Amino acid sequence: MNNGSDFCGATATSNPTKERMAKNNNTFYNQFTIEEYYINKEPFYLPVADEMQLFEAAYNGQIPILLKGPTGTGKTRFVEYMAWKLSRPLTIVKNNQGKDSNAKNGIPLVTIACHEDLTASDLVGRYLLDAEGTRWMDGPLARAVKSGAICYLDEIVEARKDTTVLIHPLADHRRTLPVEKQGIVLEAKKGFQLVISYNPGYQSALKDLKESTRQRFIAIEFSPPPPAVEAEIIRKESGCTAAHARSLAKLGEKVRNLQDHGLKEGASTRILIYAGKLISQGISPKRACHVSVVWGITDDAEVQRSVEEIVTAIFAN
Ligand SMILES: Nc1ncnc2c1ncn2[C@@H]1O[C@H](COP(=O)(O)OP(=O)(O)OP(=O)(O)O)[C@@H](O)[C@H]1O
Ligand SMILES: [Mg+2]
Questions:
Q1: Which one of 59, 100, 167, 260 counts the least CB within 10 Å of its CB?
Q2: Of the residues 79, 233, 235, which should be mutated to test ligand 1's pocket, given the most ligand atoms within 8 Å of the CB?
Q3: Is the full-model pTM beyond 0.85?
Q4: Fold entry, domain 13-221
Q5: Which atom of ligand 1 is nearest to the CA of 80?
Q6: Tens digit of pLDDT for each residue in 166-181?
């Protein structure tokens, strides 16, 4: 993460709040409230199929979206990109200082990493006790609903079933979130979009999505991109040469063919980018692939040997 104004590829819009720059042990860091967390710098995203059109159509039709696919195939990057893209008006109106006056009207992105201890209160909110007494604090889901954000629930199957059903009224025509503890129902603001993701590869049957949950979403499948597209992604993201990027994409394709031979999931685009970054930092291609791809994707010595052989066949040094 860089220590400038960027934070995970996102920057806050104008109107700095009191908390924007906090000082902590001489370290400056950015802090945004959920409602002002906009992606206003274009994230790099290379489309693989018609996912952009599908997302936009679903967004306009208020249809919840499920993104599924193996690790490192660009699901999170895609959501960030779409939050940026949908925030852009077709006509950019400049104010008298030459600034994009629509920049403030973006769509916030709220990301929630699901885990098995995630409770309904963690999502919706809870009463807190402080010096002044009891006060209510909205959870991230309630805040996303109120601010018309894109709410991205990452690895949804990790959440407990009782937590998952909480999103049911939000994920159908009602678009509401009951807040039982306050005795109220929140109606989602226009623009609110529910996006969930999961990796079907390593989910057990027990952890599968309930039918009544999954059938509330359209599903966009992510898979490793074709080699030419993947090479371009690797080049752009890692800064390595086009020739190295092509070789890494080839390595990725060949390693994925080992999937039925003891490998749970092939080399992700993410891990190939890591190799590219090491190469562009001066590490030899073979060594870079060794520590990222060979050791990174498996602990099985036999599979490691097979991957190593592919690396040696592709890279001379
Ligand atoms: N189509 C793409 N365009 C641009 N970058 C991509 C694309 N696909 C993958 N990437 C790159 O791969 C990296 C991994 O992607 P990302 O984190 O979005 O994967 P993910 O599918 O969300 O993985 P996980 O399931 O592990 O969360 C990104 O940081 C980005 O650099
Ligand atoms: Mg992700």
A1: 260
A2: 233
A3: yes
A4: Rossmann fold (3.40.50)
A5: 18
A6: 999 999 999 999 999 9
